[in-house]
């Protein structure tokens, strides 16, 4: 981590001292996510309920500017203008650098069809099977670590050679056991776990933005 990223983590721990026990895991997850993007991979992010909303939130922070402007490279600006002078100029000015990430809960037709035709608990596994590549990372979010659809997704990701990182609580459950690295926050009540997840993933998204933009 560079100095700016170290300050991000320090600020997080200063604001939420109880997260000091997972500081090492936060840094390890950052390294995994950073290396995923450096090798051309993407994130597949999944959770249920509030954790599904967190997955969408993370995608929103990664796929567009968070704190930085993220102006696209000049050669890409030129290519856009070469396709269409007027619209290309608008796009060149407005498009922002993106870190590829997909929230698994957002595909209504696919998810409902697979749930109806096969098994709702395996919907995320089917998406990991279809989207996932060896260079990708599955970012699984479960307050208990034992959500059935998350467990199936983990097994599928591991079989495809993907790295799995977790954001969980309580004792970590299956996710804490099977993920390559899991951030297990020191809370057991669902809403309290989720309240600690948000500042952690905000910190990670800011650190990634620092790294690439």
**Overall residue-averaged pLDDT value:** 97
Please mark out the parts with pLDDT under 50 across 5 or more consecutive residues, or reply none: none
What strand line-up does the widest sheet have? 2-1-3-4-5
Structural class determined from secondary elements = alpha/beta
Helix content: 55-70%
Per CATH, the class reads Alpha Beta
Helix-strand sequence: HHEHHHEHHEHEHEH
Shape: globular
Total DSSP E strands: 5
Strand content: 5-15%
| Main pleated-sheet profile | 5 strands, parallel
Organism: [Clostridium] hylemonae DSM 15053
GO molecular function: carbohydrate derivative binding; isomerase activity
Keywords: Isomerase
Pfam family, one: SIS_2
Description:
It is a single chain. The protein is α/β, with parallel strands linked by helices. It has one domain: Glucose-6-phosphate isomerase like protein, domain 1 (Rossmann fold). The protein is built from ten helices and five strands. A five-stranded parallel beta sheet has the order 2-1-3-4-5, sandwiched between helices. Helix 1 (3-15) runs antiparallel to helix 10 and helix 7 (123-131) packs parallel to helix 8. The longest helix is centred in the C-terminal third of the chain and has 23 residues, at 190-212. The protein starts with a helix and ends with a helix.
